[in-house]
Specification:
seven-stranded antiparallel beta sheet, alpha+beta, 3 helices, globular, Chemotaxis protein chec, 151 residues
Length: 151
């Protein structure tokens, strides 16, 4: 396993743990294409440091609505656009923080930006040839969440 595989596992495991802890929904790694596409709503955070990058967590709105409801105690139909976006930002924030704690390499001693949300399905990320792009899909047959780390 190379460093990028390990980094990808650290981020996907952190996301699965965060979602499980705050919602009670347990997701597992699902087979996916090498470069998973973004869904309707994407939480984003910049991780600044020697080996920093950008973390993206994406899902369709119904799935985020379910997770937001479980996280906040709101009924799904009561969750506003702002509630859903806040929940997704919190997933990004907690995932980045958990991954940061798991990374023992001092090169990954990054600082975290404030999370933000991008809406839309046609988001494309283009990088230089040797920029690592790690992606994974977590799901349970009913809910699916995608993670991408560009570093």
């Amino acid at each position: 396993m190379d460093a990028n595989d390990n980094l990808g596992l650290i981020f996907t495991d952190a996301l699965a743990e965060v979602i499980g802890t705050v919602t009670g929904v347990y997701l597992h790694n699902e087979p996916s294409e090498a470069d998973a596409c973004f869904d309707e709503i994407t939480g984003v955070m910049r991780l600044c440091g020697k080996k920093g990058g950008v973390l993206f967590i994406s899902a369709n709105e119904p799935d985020i609505r379910v997770l937001c409801s479980l996280m906040t105690g709101l009924q799904e139909e009561e969750a506003t656009k702002s509630d859903i976006e806040d929940a997704l930002c919190e997933f990004v924030n907690m995932t980045a923080g958990s991954a940061k704690l798991r990374l023992s390499d001092p090169d990954y001693a990054f600082t975290l930006s404030s999370p933000f949300v991008i809406r839309g399905k046609d988001i494309t990320i283009t990088t230089k040839n040797k920029t690592p792009v790690l992606s994974g899909v977590l799901g349970n047959g009913e809910i699916s969440v995608k993670l991408k780390f560009v570093g």
